[in-house]
User: Which sequence fits this backbone?
């Protein structure tokens, strides 16, 4: 690979070797490899996977899917040529997390869950994902057999609810869409979309949610002032307003959109639109379409529940999906 990445890798190796000169650093480096690999998977695969799969109109049968690209460039290239050779220096490589990342992409359809979430939240973004065409449906089904059964109906509804002049709400608030807005991972900040794997725990006196056991470990154990009895003050903690939904809990949704600056110069039409029929004002969403709709933070709601309510909520949430389905509604 001829790019800056080769330089980055060379620099990384030299820094690792320098750090390994002190045996006490080995345990910390192994910790860092675990959370760094996993955070990269959660965040980078979410973003790049969505861009490659859902941001493209190239539906040639021979074009690689993101899963095929990942297996070739991440698993066969990066993992085998960069991570595994680190074992000769005595480092424990997180093989289990590499395999788990591959499982989430190839079996749990992580990227498709993320793309669906991105599309769901179109009123709160400057960008959009187009409604699907028959060619899109055929390509996804060919590349990911069973894709339509999991996501096809929702994408049909995405097109159906793309305009406000049909008596429907935006898809994020439309009951017929049967999509449960997800909790957000406290660590990687990507929503907990593989719902069966979601971890709920009280950390630092607060009910928090995590997309996986590894993100839970990262917050509760790795990012702490001490690690296995050793002081690690530079790690600190994952604190602050980590969920943007919490910032606007209890707001009217129209006020959220306005405060975020997602309104055009006319003072009413939204900048984001889930389609490109921009010449007909009747097809454009405005603040009026969102007035009176309460905006809630899943995390605030979770913390306000009684223990019994929380237990029932957790069970229902983890039984949900694929595609964000509410198990009670199925």
Assistant:
């Amino acid at each position: 690979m001829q790019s800056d990445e080769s330089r980055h890798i060379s620099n990384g190796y030299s820094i690792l070797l320098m750090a390994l000169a002190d045996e006490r650093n080995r345990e910390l480096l192994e910790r860092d490899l675990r959370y760094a690999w996993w955070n990269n998977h959660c965040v980078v695969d979410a973003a790049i996977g969505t861009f490659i799969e859902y941001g493209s109109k190239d539906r040639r049968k021979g074009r690689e899917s993101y899963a095929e690209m990942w297996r070739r460039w991440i698993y066969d290239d990066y993992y085998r040529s960069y991570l595994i050779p680190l074992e000769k220096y005595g480092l424990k490589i997180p093989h289990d997390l590499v395999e788990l990342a591959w499982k989430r992409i190839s079996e749990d359809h992580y990227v498709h869950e993320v793309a669906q979430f991105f599309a769901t939240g179109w009123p709160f973004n400057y960008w959009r994902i187009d409604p699907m065409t028959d060619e899109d449906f055929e390509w996804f089904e060919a590349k990911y057999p069973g894709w339509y059964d999991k996501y096809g109906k929702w994408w049909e509804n995405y097109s159906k609810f793309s305009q406000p002049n049909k008596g429907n709400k935006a898809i994020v608030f439309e009951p017929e869409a049967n999509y449960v807005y997800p909790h957000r991972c406290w660590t990687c900040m990507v929503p907990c979309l593989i719902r069966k794997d979601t971890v709920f725990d009280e950390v630092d006196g607060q009910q928090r949610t995590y997309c996986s056991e590894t993100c839970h470990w990262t917050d509760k154990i790795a990012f702490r002032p001490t690690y296995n009895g050793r002081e690690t003050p530079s790690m600190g903690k994952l604190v602050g307003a980590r969920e943007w939904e919490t910032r606007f809990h209890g707001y009217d949704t129209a006020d959220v959109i306005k405060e975020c600056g997602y309104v055009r110069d006319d003072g009413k039409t939204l900048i984001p639109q889930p389609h490109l029929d921009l010449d007909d004002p009747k097809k454009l969403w405005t603040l009026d379409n969102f007035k009176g709709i309460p905006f809630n933070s899943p995390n605030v709601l979770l913390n306000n529940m009684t223990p019994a309510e929380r237990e029932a909520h957790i069970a229902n949430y983890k039984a949900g999906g694929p595609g964000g389905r509410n198990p009670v509604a199925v």
The longest helix spans residues 25-54. The first strand starts at residue 199 and ends at 203. The CA atoms of residues 195 and 317 lie 7 Å apart. The mean pLDDT is 93.
